[in-house]
Amino acid sequence: MDHFDVLIVGAGLSGIGAACRLQELCPDKTYRVLESRPAIGGTWDLFRYPGIRSDSDMYSFGYPFRPWTRPEAIGEGADILQYIRDTAEEYGIPQKVMFNHRVVDAAWSSNDGRWTLTVEHTNPDTGAVADTVTMTCRFVYWASGYYRYDKGYTPDFPGRERFTGPIIHPQFWDDTVDYAGKRVVVIGSGATAMTLVPNIAKNASHVTMLQRTPTYVVPYPKVDPLAKPLLKVLPNRLAHTILRWKNVYFTAGSWSLSQIWPTLMKYVFIGVARLCLPRGYDWKTHFTPPYKPWDQRLCLVPNGDLFKSIKRGDVSIVTDRISSFTERGIELASGGELPADVIVTATGLNVVLFGGATLSVDGEPVRLSDKRMYRGMMLCELPNTFYATGYSNASYNLKADLTIRYVCRLLNHMDTIGATYCVATPPPASMAKVPVIALKSGYIERSMSTLPTQGVDVPWRLHQNYRRDIHGLLRDKLDDGVLQFH
Q1: Pairing state of beta strands 453-454 and 434-435?
Q2: 272-284 pLDDT, tens per residue?
Q3: Which residues in 471-484 are b (16+ Cβ under 10 Å) and which e?
Q4: Are the C-beta atoms of 391 and 377 separated by less than 8 Å?
Q5: Hey, CA dihedral for 219, 225, 228, 230, is it positive or negative?
Q6: How many Å from the N-terminal Cα to the C-terminal Cα in the chain?
Q7: pLDDT of 444 over the 70 cut
Q8: What pTM does this model have?
Q9: Domains contained in the chain, CATH given
Q10: What is the pLDDT confidence band of residue 441, given thresholds at 50, 70 and 90?
Q11: What does the alpha-carbon distance between residue 24 and residue 91 come to, in Å, rounded to a whole number?
Q12: Angle at which helices 236-260 and 466-474 pack, to 10 degrees?
């Protein structure tokens, strides 16, 4: 078959979740999952750097229909990958996945009421294009994430070619690099750097985390103290639900208080970090961000491992700018030099939507920056296509799961009324445009001009509120006057 009701793009966490929900809620729909890589897992199969883990608790990051039963609230990368693959096996998804199939173009025809996808079938060993196939479908569900898998972001560091040791980007970790007993400099201060630093420090002689700007760093118990007693006395699904909602309310409360009293919450987060640092440590320089809490995501460190490494003397934090790489390390803008045998550039991601595929509607190319997001999952004037998105202030999968449940509800409604396709009409031109992602992280700001926008009113406004979205996506009427059925 080359025609299906639904084509899901991506076999990572959200893609597998979408396939499971589609089978459960729309059992009569034919579908396939197109995965550009040779394995299930997405990010969790691609990223293999030391210590890789979730940056959210697994009770809200995991699937609500399949409980996370391990005791760790912060999941290790290998365990998360196995969890995704076990879920796929349990629901019979692998036989529906077409591996090494990368979507490069998607064209909608209103006359035919369907999408035509141009798909490159690649060689799993070399990545070279073996052939190009065409597939058609009524609906496309994009679960391809928001960053480029083939290229991470690395600034153009002056003198990079002078450095005589290995330079590694975490997105493409090189297991052959031996850093045992060596001096390692990790450039960055995001979740990846916070994960790498204490894990590399277990074997390196010393690790320096070189940051341009401090981040809010919060210790978090690796094992949820409520998990063991709840899992002992309650069925897994009930215990999972209780833990999930406990963490949803905790995270939402942290975010809400940060919006209402940002200065107070700033000093709460900094105060917690101070308690975890050695006496006399220069926390003002290294742990006092110049922005408000939740302008960027908080960095959770399981059991305070980063702080423990600093206390032991295994890790140093340097807050400065890079002047140049040298043969022996990094020259700082302040005039000092950081000696290094290995440099790790944990400098971020390159954002790309729709897996980098080009889109067109009735022959007209789609310019993403001209479009508004409808309910955080559709672009105006793009029929029958949906995008899995997450929250910037909570677990990604909370929103991704609501999205596919809404889509299944919509597909069933369209069958009931005999509609072939639906499309969101644009909002009034006078409605103010708001950035689609409410974060000030570097990878977002670098790509802002290429991203769609949102509006200020429902349904064009993306709520960063799981409880509110449950009502809006699962209970509000589908025929809202904006979504048009044909």
Answers
A1: antiparallel
A2: 999 999 999 999 9
A3: ebbeeeeeeeebbe
A4: no
A5: negative
A6: 26
A7: no
A8: 0.94
A9: 3-149+350-485 (3.50.50.60), 160-345 (3.50.50.60)
A10: low
A11: 9
A12: 110
